[in-house]
Amino acid sequence: MKITAVIMAGGKGERFWPKSRSAYPKQFLSLTSDGETMIQKTIKRLLPLVDTEDIFIVTNESYVPLINEQLPDIPAENILAEPVARNTAPCIALAAAVINKKYDDAVMMVLPSDHLIKYEELYLDTMRHAVRVAKKDENLVTVGITPTYPETGYGYINFCSAESEDMVGVYKVKKFVEKPCLEKAKEYLNSGRYLWNSGMFVWKVSSIMKNFERFLPAMYEGFLKMKESAGTDSFSAVLEQCFSEFESESIDFGIMEKADNIYTLSGSFGWDDVGSWLALEKINKTDEYGNYVAGDVITIDTGKSIICGNKKLIAAVGLEDVIVVDTDDATLICAKSHTQQVKKVIENLKICNRRELI
Amino acid sequence: MKITAVIMAGGKGERFWPKSRSAYPKQFLSLTSDGETMIQKTIKRLLPLVDTEDIFIVTNESYVPLINEQLPDIPAENILAEPVARNTAPCIALAAAVINKKYDDAVMMVLPSDHLIKYEELYLDTMRHAVRVAKKDENLVTVGITPTYPETGYGYINFCSAESEDMVGVYKVKKFVEKPCLEKAKEYLNSGRYLWNSGMFVWKVSSIMKNFERFLPAMYEGFLKMKESAGTDSFSAVLEQCFSEFESESIDFGIMEKADNIYTLSGSFGWDDVGSWLALEKINKTDEYGNYVAGDVITIDTGKSIICGNKKLIAAVGLEDVIVVDTDDATLICAKSHTQQVKKVIENLKICNRRELI
Questions:
Q1: Fewest C-beta in 10 Å: which of A21, A72, A126, A278?
Q2: Measured between alpha carbons, how far is A98 from A222 in angstroms, rounded to an integer?
Q3: Any idea what the Cα angle at residue A31 is, between residues A26 and A32, rounded to 5°?
Q4: What is the pairing mode between strands B322-326 and B330-335?
Q5: Which residue of chain B comes nearest to A311, CA vs CA?
């Protein structure tokens, strides 16, 4: 059975403002010193497992030129542009329709386009394992991440004991839980029964579509229409119509929390969702004072700061725990404790109708 | 007797980097919201007291074009370019020579070009009083500032009781003291016998030259040569020669600390020497959170900060007590507690031979 990958690349990513913009979100940025963008890394690390022609990218219409530019090897027909964003369930139905038309059944890995993974060999082993589990019966597999600290910014997966000997390291999912408070997060960590929800899934097209039919029947109707028109001239018109009718729905809430046969594996491959500028010091090398510095930067008496220069000198004097990001038309200077407030800047820009800066 | 003003405008001013540069020091910057530069303000506030043709500017050769641009009304022959900077004593000898040639004797007010004064009427009254004292006998007058807090960054003037009834508010100077430690500064403030040394002086040309003859005889020889050649073709050659022979000497140390008949007045006219970026919040209006903001700036959860934008948006999030100054080729981000460390940035640039940024 063919192994395919569906990369979800429609995210807006306001959290990397001013580098990310609505026209240029996080997945198309390079946040590491090697210059590769997030989506380029996502594709590259998959290649030992999936053929380029079996990688599908679901994205927004406006990002298609960026994808063509950054990923010239991906066939044009594999880039699937959603007319409007309707969260992950319609995105997955669309990809499933195209893959179902092409291969009838196939294994489908669904992956975010903007996460980093440090240990790629371990990642590939985990994904191979997930594929084996997904091929069996009608299993739906969600890839969990072994927590290393009580993070309050992620959802968690509560799992049961392993069931049988031929499923080593694979656990039945008891329930999905939302982002917890710190106390709860500590409890989850100590229990040894919770994993971080990474948003990575593996299943057969046939398995997930049965669940669409059961839990999201309207979307299943859309799937059938999209499948029928895939590869024909009417495809984009059908997409347009289906998406205008789809409710906005996440795959987690719409299917995963309701379905049976949900399994998880505990991945430990240096996963990072790169959720804010704070991630830069985790994923890159810092200097002896704990600063991550890129570009033309002079630091004097400055520590634990993240400073990304652009085309001109940035001189940082006496700073601690500060993030500086310079771009051609905007400079962000933000206390590390206030990264969540960056969205207020964007709100302010929206109110002032300064579209060019958003 | 004519009243003349000598504006000392040769200062380098590294403390306002990155706005000030060696080619563009503080006196030529606008640091207030009205857009006037420091030297333009200095000249403008003098005009009720001195005719434009009696204002002389001593500066560095390289700043002459800037002065012509910013002060087009000052006659070309009143702009005196020092071949090399040799501190204030040679600067004053040069101006005295030119004024002595033009008017024989005259009152000479010697003034820095880069200080701010809030209450201009009070300033003019104080200067008129100083002129009256200077006209009498061979008095040398230094304008003191009534201290309002124990500043450790200024020199102080220790004065004696008033001598006679016709010299109300005028005091004989006991001694000049260097920048004190905080404890000493508090002592000075509490004693009621110390004023801040503002670097403003008033005397007759004849009075100061007698003191040059007595305490700085080599410089007095130079004065005579410069006076003789003033207005002739040989002037610049004579200047060149004199300045190459002059020792570097301040008027404070070379004459004021040694001479007799030194008087001071206590000025209270909102004087500020604008010694660092910190002055911006003293001399400009701040917002309700204590921020001084200029240019295209968005502040979120930010207080007590100084943010000077340039051509692009600056978004400040969660900052406190931070100074941000953006220019075309460099951005400074500096904790208020570290303004004295800005010079380390310049040292670093010198070591790396990045002349264009200094």
A1: A72
A2: 12
A3: 150
A4: antiparallel
A5: B329
What pLDDT sits at residue B164? 66
User: Is the confidence at residue B238, as pLDDT, over 80?
Assistant: yes
3-state SS class at B177:
strand
Of A252, A260, A264, nearest to A130 by C-alpha is A264
Chain A neighbors of B298, CB-CB under 8 A? 345, 348-349
**How far apart are alpha carbons B9 and B28 in whole angstroms?**
9
8 Å CB contact of A345 and B312: no
Residue type, A307: I
Residue A295 CA to residue A302 CA, distance in Å, equals: 16
CB B25 within 8 A of CB B286: no
Place of tokens 């209270």: B268
Query: Where is B195: in which H helix or E strand?
Result: strand B194-204
Share of chain B above pLDDT 90, in %: 91
> What pTM was computed for the model?
0.85
Strands B156-159 and B170-177: antiparallel
Instruction: Name the interface residues of B facing A (CB cutoff 8 Å).
Output: 18, 298, 300-301, 312-320, 322, 324, 326, 328-335, 337-338, 341-342, 344-345, 348-349, 354, 357
The C-alpha atoms of residue B248 and residue B210 are separated, in whole angstroms, by: 19
- 8 A C-beta contact, residue B173 and residue B264: yes
With CB atoms and an 8 Å threshold, state whether B344 touches A314: no
Contact by Cβ (8 Å): A328, B312: yes
DSSP A163-204: --GGGTTEEEEEEEEPPPPHHHHHHHHHHT-EEEEEEEEEEE
Cis ω before B83 (30° cut-off from 0): no
Could you tell me the two tokens for B109? 């007010």
Beta-strand relationship, A330-335 and A313-317: unpaired
Written as six digits, the tokens of B47 are: 């005009």
The per-residue pLDDT for range B329-355, each reduced to its tens digit, is 999 999 999 998 999 999 999 999 999
Q: What is the value of ipTM here, to two decimals?
A: 0.84
Q: Which residues, other chains included, contact B108 with Cβ-Cβ below 8 Å and sequence gap of 6+?
A: B4, B5, B6, B95, B96, B99, B202, B203, B204, B205, B208
Alpha carbons within 13 angstroms on the beta-carbon side of residue B323 total 25
How far apart, in whole angstroms, are the C-alpha atoms of residue B118 and residue B228? 40
Gap from B166 CA to chain A (nearest CA, Å)? 53
pLDDT in tens, A103-121: 999 999 999 999 999 999 9
Q: What is the mean pLDDT of residues A199-221?
A: 97
Q: CA B210, CA B221: separation in Å to the nearest integer?
A: 12
B71 φ, ψ (degrees, to nearest 5): -130, 70
Are A2 and A109 within 8 A, CB to CB? no
Token digits of residue A340? 């969540």
Contacting residues for A54 by C-beta, under 8 A, at least 6 apart: A2, A3, A4, A5, A106
Burial class from Cβ neighbours inside 10 Å (0-12, 13-18, 19+) for residue B126 reads: buried
* Residue B165 in tokens: 């009834």
Closest CA to B313 of A325, A313, A23: A325
